[in-house]
Design goal:
mainly alpha, 28 helices, disordered N terminus
Length: about 625
């Protein structure tokens, strides 16, 4: 019996068949999907030329080439926009090293406000706290970004107030960021495609050339954006090395770098999501190891929150309502207009990344119009973001590079998108500085890796190189011609109004600079011509936003300057009447006090009576009675 079973089994083996039991025991298991593994870090010496090229490119674009066009490019560089608040007129920064503790323990604006208090307040009975309260409408919300101001304080002892020196440091830090991007991406994408034609170099090249970054580099104040991204990427790189090597000192170095990033600017907090996201897409790391790595990051974030709250008085929201359109662009928005408008700005960000043809620093009301879902641009943007979001989640397990690019983009953009926090304006080009890396990786991936996989496309590598060459040359050209716009406030304003022609703020600034220049003009004919040029800008600013305090003040100044030339009191008083009926403007009252002993008394009385009764009838009896008393009633 046993013999017959053995013979049967032998014949079964000879026939090439296997029993079900044997097959289950011996057959190989189905291959599991291989998790990604990071390549070895690049050897710097092998890529020394690449690193030098990426570092020098920003110097060429922002310093050398603009200098060839204008030899005064650096010598005439001035502080623009908020540069004055964080540097040239900041008391703590100008104290140098001794002011660093104040920069750490107080709101970012405090050094500027204290300097203004000393300069403007001559009445010793007015306390700093009272002055500070009077400035809340002009500087609403808190800022806590001490790291960039600390760097300014350290540089102040060497450079003084030479604006070009701080600008050059920005350029060097920007070049260093491009170098770091290459090093980081070379750690994520193998350099098997060649020394130059590879994702890390192309992405870093596009980042260095992209003209949307001119606001961050040329605006000295935006050192906070540069440092936040530089330290965030450095932290990410070190954490990836920690996941590979397991050396705990790497984890602590990465944590310190992350803390420096959020001390530079709060949008670095988004790397709490970017670090684990990148580890998931590009590295095989256990949940336990990832969780342990996130604990110190969360710890220093809590430390930052505590320090910020102590310095500012709250974390993000003061709880105070904002009614000024220039500090909350949605003040006049109707129900159902805010969300469509936000998605329209998200569409504009994508448009500017792919085709940065018209750049401006001014997106104030109403350069970006209030939208409803009836507008196809808002609806299309919502559908696009929703579709890309769903796609990214569906292919999450497959670790698609395109999904990573989109997720990186939306995560880093989320904090400045107005979706979760009010940022005081519709949008800004500097807000897409950090997110733009997702676009650069995407375009590099499409041209270097994705196109060659499509068999129906002839010469895919040549097509990819052509696309990259087109973008590179276009980006470089646009950057070089954009940089000079940031030389002075005046040059910046007049370049902005060509694009932001529907911005009340852009028109106000152009009108103001022309009015200011007119006051310095000695020739009366030329002065009138300059006032004639300034007035249309102010009128347009007021047409867009009738209660814009700065424009009302500038218009009053222009009309007073006209009066100094032509002596037409009726025209002056009629304009003052229109201004005061819109909103109380202190300059008007000051100038009226100047006129009282000098102008025709009957005309002044008639003006005060007319304005007083008009204000009383409109419901403002307090101001109305004030002017009636001035009329002698």
């Amino acid at each position: 019996m046993i013999k017959s079973v053995r013979l049967s089994y032998l014949r079964h083996i000879m026939s090439g068949k296997k029993s079900k039991k044997t097959a289950n025991r011996n057959d190989p298991k189905p291959a599991a999907r291989v998790k990604p593994k990071l390549p070895e870090p690049i050897k710097w010496r092998e890529h020394f030329v690449t690193l030098i090229v990426l570092f020098i490119l920003p110097i060429l674009l922002y310093v050398a080439l603009p200098f060839l066009k204008d030899p005064n490019h650096l010598s005439e560089k001035q502080y623009v926009l908020d540069d004055k608040m964080v540097l040239s007129e900041n008391q703590y920064v100008k104290e140098g090293v001794s002011g660093i503790w104040s920069l750490i323990t107080e709101d970012t604006w405090q050094g500027y406000l204290r300097a203004r208090y000393k300069e403007e307040v001559k009445d010793s009975t007015v306390s700093y706290e009272q002055y500070l309260k009077s400035q809340e409408s002009q500087l609403p919300g808190g800022r806590y970004r001490p790291l960039s101001l600390i760097s300014f304080a350290l540089e102040y002892d060497f450079f003084g107030l030479t604006a070009s020196s701080y600008f050059i440091v920005n350029v060097l830090l920007y070049g260093l960021t491009a170098v770091l991007i290459f090093i980081l991406l070379a750690y994520l994408f193998p350099l098997r495609d060649g020394k130059w034609w590879n994702i890390p170099f192309i992405a870093a090249l596009l980042f260095a050339l992209h003209p949307i970054h001119t606001e961050v580099v040329a605006n000295i104040k935006s050192r906070d954006d540069i440092l936040a991204m530089l330290f965030s990427l450095a932290s990410l790189y070190i954490f990836l090395k920690y996941f590979q090597s397991g050396k705990k000192q790497m984890m602590w170095v990465g944590t310190v770098l992350f803390f420096l990033a959020i001390m530079a600017k709060e949008n670095a907090i988004t790397f709490l999501a970017i670090i684990p996201l990148t580890a998931y897409f590009f590295h095989s790391v256990s949940f336990k190891k990832l969780f342990n790595a996130m604990l110190p990051l969360l710890g220093v974030t809590l430390v930052y929150v505590f320090i910020r709250t102590e310095a500012v008085g709250y974390f993000f929201d003061s709880g105070k309502a904002v009614f000024d359109l220039m500090n909350d662009p949605f003040v006049e928005a109707k129900k159902g207009e805010k969300l469509p408008t936000i998605f329209f700005t998200l569409w504009l960000y994508l448009q500017l990344l792919f085709f940065p043809l018209q750049l401006t620093h001014d997106y104030y009301p109403y350069q970006v119009p209030l939208m409803s879902w009836d507008d196809f641009r808002a609806t299309l943007s919502f559908i696009l973001y929703l579709a890309l979001g769903v796609y990214s989640l569906l292919v999450l397990k497959k670790r698609k590079v395109i999904a990573y690019c989109f997720l990186y983009f939306v995560i880093t953009l989320s904090i400045v998108s107005n979706l979760f926090l009010s940022i005081g304006t519709f949008m800004n080009e500097r807000f897409v500085y950090m997110p733009s890396l997702g676009f650069c990786i995407f375009l590099a991936f499409v041209c270097v890796t994705w196109l060659p996989k499509i068999k129906k496309i002839p010469a895919p590598v040549i097509i990819g190189m052509t696309i990259i060459a087109f973008y590179s040359l276009g980006f470089a050209y646009k950057t070089v011609i954009r940089v000079p716009d940031w030389k002075t406030d005046k040059s910046l304003s007049f370049s902005a109004v060509k694009v932001s022609f529907n911005s009340s703020r852009a028109n106000q600034f152009c009108g103001y600079y022309l009015y200011r220049d007119a006051l310095e003009e000695k020739d009366s004919v030329k002065q009138i011509m300059m006032l004639d040029e300034a007035l249309p800008y102010i009128d347009k600013a007021l047409k867009i936003y009738p209660e814009y305090s700065e424009s009302l003040k500038t218009k009053a100044g222009i009309m007073a300057a006209y009066f100094q030339q032509d002596g037409n009191l009726d025209k002056l008083l009629n304009s003052f009447y229109d201004i005061q009926m819109v909103k109380q403007t202190p300059f008007v009252d000051q100038y009226l006090n100047y006129l009282d002993p000098r102008a025709d008394r009957k005309k002044m009385q008639a003006f005060y009576m007319r304005l007083g009764f008009a204000l009383t009838n409109s419901g403002d009896s307090l101001r109305g009675n004030y002017y009636k008393r001035k009329a002698g009633i």
